[in-house]
Structures are given as C-alpha cells and as structure tokens.
Amino acid sequence: MEIESMVANSALIKAREGGGSKGRSWKWKEMLRFPQISQCRQLAMNIERDYYSLCVKQPIGKKLFQLFCRSQTDLQNHISLQDALETFETKSDEDRREFGIYIIQRFLRRYWAPLWTSPCLCVDLHKYLSGDPFMQYQESMFFDRFLQWKMLERSPITKQTFRQYRLLGKGGFGEVWACQVRATGMMYACKKLEKTHVKKRRGEAMALNEKQILEGLDSRFVVNLAYAYETKHALCMVLTMMSGGDLRFHIYNIGVPGLDKDRVRFYAAEVCCGIIHLHQKSIVYRDLKPENILLDDNGHIRISDLGLAVRLSEGSLVRGRVGTLGYMAPEVISNKHYGMSVDWWGLGCLIYEMIAGHPPFKSRGEHARTSEMERRIQTEQEAYSDKFSKEATDLCSLLLTKDPNQRLGSFSGGTEVQSHPFFHKINFRMLEAGLIEPPFKPDPRQVYCSDVQDIEEFSSVKGVTLDHIDNNFYSQFNTGSVPINWQNEVCRVFFLKSFYCLYDSDS
Ligand code: ADP
Ligand code: MG
Ligand code: MG
Questions:
Q1: Cα separations (Å) of 188 from 15, 54, 221, 267?
Q2: Interval 491-498 mean pLDDT
Q3: What's the confidence (pLDDT) of residue 506?
Q4: Which of 29, 94, 183, 257 sits at 20 to 30 Å (Cα–Cα) from 332?
Q5: Cβ-count burial of 257 within 10 angstroms (0-12 exposed, 13-18 middle, 19+ buried)?
Q6: Which of 16, 188, 191 to mutate for ligand 1's pocket (most ligand atoms within 8 Å of CB)?
Q7: Is residue 294 in contact with ligand 1, taking CB distance under 6 Å?
Q8: Is 168 helix (H, G, I), strand (E, B) or coil?
Q9: How far is the CA of 389 from the centre of ligand 1 (A)?
Q10: pLDDT for res 180
Q11: What spacing in Å lies between the alpha carbon of 305 and ligand 2's midpoint?
Q12: What distance in Å separates the CA atoms of residue 203 and residue 201, rounded to the nearest whole number?
C-alpha cells in the first residue's frame, strides 16, 4: 500500500473511533447556538400542529414531549407506560412474556383501569396524549425549545458543515467521500454528483428522483439520507456511513468466493426486509446486486444506490430496460411492463451468488456477450452445485422463476418469501427490531474499500455551462437536513447523556 493511502486510511479510522461526541469541533456550541425564541414566531405560525409528526415521529419532538409529560404529575404514568411498551418491542421472544406480565401488573391494574379492556393499548395511549396533553405541551417551554431545535435543523448546509476524509468510491456522476459533521462528530458518506456531469448526461431527473425517494424512507435496511445540499460544483447527498464494504468485496476478495451459510441467510433476510420496506412504499428498486448491498460497522447490511428506483402510482406498472446486465429479470430484458416482481428475481440472483461465488448465469471469470447473457436469462435453467442445501436450491429456483406471475413473492409479497423454509431459523420480528447479532463483524481497524490511488480519478467535463434553468433544479435538490435523520444525529450525541444540554442553551 502506498503511503498516501495509509495516511488517508489512518485518518479515517481515527475519525471513526472518535465518532460521536469526541469527534465534534471545539466550536460546536457556537454552531448549535439556539436562536432567540422571538425568532421562532414565524415557524410557530407555520408549523403543522400534528401530534403524530411532532410527538411521535420526530425524535427531538418526541423527547421533548416526554420531558413535558414527565414534568406533569398526572402524565408521568402515561409516559412510563409508553416507555415500557417500547421496551417490550425490544425484548427477545423469551423475555417478552415476563415483561408483558410486568406491564399489566404495573400499569393496567392499578392506574388505568379503562385501558385494561382495550385491545390496542398503544393507540389508546396516543389518542389520550394527543388531546389535552398535546395542547398543554404546545403552550409549554418544552415546545419553545422544540421550535429552537427546528430552527437549527433548518440552517443552511454547506461544505463547511462537514470535515472531509478519504475517497470511498466512484459512481456514475461523481465521487463518494467519507465525511464528518463538525458540530456533532457524526460520520457519513457524501455522494457527490458533479453538476457538469449531471447536465451533460441529462441526469437531472435521475438525481432528483434518487434524492426524493431516499428522503421519504426510514428503514434500518436502506441507507438513510441525512442532508442534501449543493456546492459550487456539485450536488451532495449525505448518507449513512457504511464502513464494512459491499457484498461483492466480501464474496470475492476474502478467500474462496462465496459466503458461509449463516452469513448468506442473515444478509438475505435483511435484504428481504429492505425490499419489503421499499415495496410497501410502492417503490421498485431494480438494481439488486452484491455491489449495492453495503455493510455497516456492526455487520448489518443496507441497500444503497437508489438511482434506478421508481415509485409506482397505485396499481400501475413500469417499463424500461434498466439494471445491470446479468441481474436483470427476464421481463425487463424482453421490455415488458413489470412491477415488484423484478426485485424478487434480484434477490434470487443475490442469494445464488453469495452461495455459489458467481452469478446464476455466468461462470467464474467468464466474459459473456450481452446477447448471450440475455438468452441464458430468458431460456436457461440455472445449475445448482452441492454448495446449495435443499432449502437454498428450492428458494433460489422459486425466486428465479422466469414467469413473473409464477415467481415467489408475486402472490402475497414479501411475507411469502420470509416464510420459506430457508429462513426457518430467522426470527423476522427480532431482525426488524435490530436485535439479531450479525454473524460477522467487520474489523474496525480495516478499511473495506479500494486504495485511494486505485480509485480512478473523476474526469472533468468541458464545454458545459450552467445557467438559471439549472439553478431551478439545484434549488429543488438543495433542501438541507432531512428532519428525522438530523434529529436522530443530534439525539445520539446530546440527549442520551444529559437532559441538561437540551434544556439550557449555555450549558
Ligand atoms: P452510483 O449511483 O453513481 O453508482 P453509488 O451510490 O453506487 O453511486 O456509490 C458509488 C460507490 O461509493 C459505491 O460503489 C461504494 O463503494 C461507495 N459508497 C456509496 N455509498 C456509500 C456509503 N453509504 N458508505 C460507504 N461507501 C459508499
Ligand atoms: Mg452504484
Ligand atoms: Mg446509481
């Protein structure tokens, strides 16, 4: 490894270790100084007074609403019950029963008899809290503090918001860099789209589509978008940092190609949850392949690169020969209309490749022509070596069914895939709650991507001038912080430890 790469890597590793509050700038207090409450009037008038959004969905809002409730004697039990119900969701199946009994004994018998008969506790609890308590909250200083945080959330985002570390990879329109928010120390990956490249290749709609789809998602199995902003030369998407490398790297670059069966099952299950999340939002992903599945520090995966994803309007289908050769479903190749089925085909390809160490329609090291690949995908039956268990063979062949209407996942969606015997050992409730320990944890001292100098430099485009029509598009893109993710970042750094910071601006 060259010296340049070693320096870049060790700077990144050090930043990662210090990630969180240790890595934040000594000027962070200045950066996060609350505005005067009088400056929040406009916001107070315009903000939508929606209980669910303000007190449940937005992390800072939720925290402040809880603090408000804790400050009112008559609401303390409600909030303790809410906490207990949330804790209940994080309990393993074995511990749930006992904890459930505890909840019933502690809260329902003694304090709140009417709820005892209620079939759906959570709904009733929120129904109650969204009434008078929510009204009182909006008159309290806790809500003022919330507005101040909202003002900070809306501060403009620029290059100066971040520190930049090493280059992580290269994409179609630009580079991806590791970066760190100065005010909080949080690490992210910044995907840059060079304005001139976007313009030359007419990528405006695609860039905006990716950004808009990402900002509407909130899943632990898909990368999150925390910020979207622009610099003089680039449009930037700041995404969940995935330090563990992509699945392609893990399948091919560490020993014999392929992964052991526990890892295959675990990654397949998490990807399946990610796809289900996208499909629930009517989004077809269309680009499932090992390269696009990234690992985080702990070894959980997220789906990334939503450049080809599309949102379908209700009941409709799309057409378009997009995706990556070798992973496209037969109905995509033959240019038919299609829906969610193509992602189940993609999952089949992915599971196959993780087990076999090569994709289903190409042998190792082979360079098949496009037309040949297409012919195989449409007509050939894939082969299963003895690396495949009975369940794995069965699942892959059901997912790799050529007719999209007969394919597994096309009848009743993802649950059908999740209940296949291949996933017998996976508890999907616990998996969705993030409670399952990954079978492999990336080494925190290793950087799982190509050396800096091996990533080709991004060529510059000449002869493209940017004008006011471009500016219109840039301003649609440049929306700054994505509320929920920004608030999560802030909560992680400040609220876990002390309640004081949240309360007192000069703490
Ligand atoms: P494109 O859509 O242009 O192909 P990608 O989103 O695939 O761009 O990103 C290009 C490369 O950057 C990826 O192959 C990967 O190496 C790296 N990368 C992208 N997103 C992340 C992330 N969230 N964390 C770490 N590395 C990333
Ligand atoms: Mg890509
Ligand atoms: Mg892309």
A1: 11, 26, 16, 22
A2: 68
A3: 43
A4: 257
A5: middle
A6: 191
A7: yes
A8: strand
A9: 32
A10: 95
A11: 5
A12: 5
319: exposed, middle or buried (C-beta count within 10 Å: 0-12, 13-18, 19+)?
A: exposed
pLDDT tens track for 337-390: 889 999 999 999 999 999 999 999 998 888 889 999 999 999 999 999 999 999
The phi, psi pair for 120, rounded to 5°, reads -135, 90
Helix residue ranges, H only, 32-111:
41-46, 51, 59-70, 76-90, 93-103
Of all ligands present, the nearest one to the C-alpha of 241 is 1
* Ligand 1 midpoint to CA 246 (Å): 9
Which of 302, 304, 306, 455 is the best mutation target for the ligand 1 pocket, counting ligand atoms within 8 Å of the beta carbon and taking the most? 304
Taking a 5 Å cut-off on Cβ, the residues next to ion ligand 3 are 305, 307
Q: How far is the CA of 174 from the centre of ligand 1 (A)?
A: 10
| 287 catalytic residue (yes or no) | yes
Share of the chain above pLDDT 90, in %: 61
54: DSSP letter: I
Report how far apart, in Å, the C-alpha atoms of 444 and of each of 9, 79, 186, 259, 298 are. 12, 38, 16, 20, 9
Q: Is the dihedral of CA 493, 498, 499, 500 positive or negative?
A: negative
Lookup: tokens for 364: 């190792």
Confidence of residue 54 (pLDDT cuts 50, 70, 90): very high
Q: Please report, in range form, the residues annotated as the binding site for ATP.
A: 191
Average pLDDT in the 156-171 region?
Answer: 92
242 lines ligand 1 (CB under 6 A): yes
Q: Name the residue with the closest Cα to ligand 1, atom 10.
A: 171
Query: Which of 287, 296, 305, 343 does the annotation list as catalytic?
Result: 287
pTM, rounded to two decimals? 0.90
